[in-house]
Amino acid sequence: MSRGTPNISSPLTPTDDALIAAIRGGDERALAHLYRLHWPMVSHFVLQNSGSEDDAQDVYQEGVMVFYEKVRDGSLELSCQIKTYLYAVCRRLWLKRLTSKSRFGVRLLDDEEHGPYLNTGAEDDVLAAEEQDRRFATMSEALNSLGEPCKSLLEGFYLLDKSMQDLTAEFGYTNADNAKNQKYKCLVRLKKLFFTHYKEEPI
Amino acid sequence: MMTEADYYALFEAYAAGELAAPARADLEARLSADPTFALRYADFTELTDTLRALGQRQQARQQLRGIHAAMLAAEAPAEIETPAAGKLTHTVHPILRISRTERKLREFWSGHRATVGVAASVAVMAVFATLLGLDLWRATKTQPGYQALRLEINKIKRNQRALSTIITQGTATTPPVEPSKFSGTGFALTSEGYLVTSYHVIQGADSVLIEGRDRQRFRAEPVYSDVKHDLAILRITDKKFNGFGRLPYAIKSGQADLGERVFTLGYPREDVVYGEGALSARSGFEGDTAFYQISIPVNPGNSGGPLLDERGNLIGVVSGRQNDAQSAAFATKSSYLVRLVDSLAATAKADAPYHLPRYGQLAGSGRPQQLKKLRDYVFVVKVYEKE
């Protein structure tokens, strides 16, 4: 993260820096601000390149998600402004969607003002995010094929961050240990489902 | 023996830091010593991490959705409240108000404008090409139904060298001569060198050349043209020409009868061609009484050919045919020719009188004998045009 590196001519503006710091600190208002700030740019870009309003929203949310998750991990290495980074990510995402939809080669109309969107590291980040998406998709599938009550139990504990006591009450177990044991059994089954599917799928 | 679930309980306690110091040391030692055990722990971590990350992702997605909805909601009031308000309490931005339909139309337009543009231009070009094509097609068929029978010969092989020698004999310095542009048929009118052909054969002629069966060529010039009856009279101007001799046919000044057997000689190609039929009507194309309709198959090049009856009297001059009817050809009646010659003879110069043949020599003989006599008086009329 370039905030920590002693970069003399940091391309990040002070507002960018502050924003990243605030988002990392879990400030929802900062995220909302960032979201609102760059939405017109991406929306315009997608609309200009034969997308709809809904497409723009999907692409933008996905793009912000990539950015947001990297910020939260602290693994974001920005060599440009947030604006440029987001543009590059969303551009890549939209290009991918267009190519999968179209039989012909796709040429994008770019807004020149958003500067050099190449070499922003966005390409790699998008690829990593795709890998992550695949992992999540497999996991969701595994969870769905797990069946009740395992699915709800695991979702409750890991995804929704509920405490073991709440879950014990919710699922009507006699005590927390029973619930815990059930959860571990569920985990073992999930593990089999997840890893068989995840590993065998081609990258 | 611990089950997989028991290991998971242990791992979770370890990850949460709830394990007592000795148990933890024991576990760590085992992790570093036993690779299978370490792998099992790694799998557990990946599994739970993925689960947690998935939870976070879902939460973040929810959050972003909320933000987007809030953003749209913040924009919305400007769109919705203005029309409802009876009095304007705040500034109105009319540009922001885009209806749903209009937005859809705009999206469609921005997405497909290139395609639409191409399609539109293709359509426009197709329309104009069709119109232009139809126009050209119509222009080529200026006279629907009627076709004048002069032959366009820019493809027919010709003996050009012989031709140019003749030309250069006539005038000392002649530019190189192109092959003739059209040809028709003509026949002798008087023994002094007058000929008859159709007007449309020599129409627009720059110079006219007569070529007989023996390939002898004479220069000729149009003397008189009757556009209405499609007749033209030529006179041979060549110095080496010394008369046709006595003509074997007489020119009939009256009208021929319906159903008479008639025949013609002409040059639709390089050789003389005989055609035979009957006089099928005493009026021509669209009831023109200056013409006969004859049932002789004729072709371009037959124009200006003589039409003779059984006894070898000249009764007409072949002029054209009807395209959309079977074997309907037309010939100018000889009575018009006689009348024309009479009027010309009244004003003729003394050195070139008209002496029409009065008596034919063909009556009574068989057709081949008739043709043998006749063919020396039928000529190719070649027409040259200035470019």
TrEMBL record, chain A:
It holds the Pfam family Sigma70_r2. Coiled coil: none annotated. GO terms for biological process: DNA-templated transcription initiation. The keyword Phosphoprotein does not apply. Residues 34-103 form the RNA polymerase sigma-70 region domain. InterPro entries: RNA_pol_sigma-70-like (IPR039425), RNA_pol_sigma-70_dom (IPR014284), RNA_pol_sigma70_r2 (IPR007627), RNA_pol_sigma_r2 (IPR013325). This is Sigma-70 family RNA polymerase sigma factor. It comes from Hymenobacter cyanobacteriorum.
TrEMBL record, chain B:
Signal peptide: none annotated. InterPro entries: Peptidase_S1_PA, Peptidase_S1C. GO terms for molecular function: serine-type endopeptidase activity. The keyword ATP-binding does not apply. The keyword Hydrolase applies. Keywords: Hydrolase, Membrane, Protease, Transmembrane, Transmembrane helix. The lineage of its organism: Bacteria, Pseudomonadati, Bacteroidota, Cytophagia, Cytophagales. The chain crosses the membrane at residues 114-137. One of its GO terms (biological process) is proteolysis. This is Serine protease. It holds the Pfam family Trypsin_2.
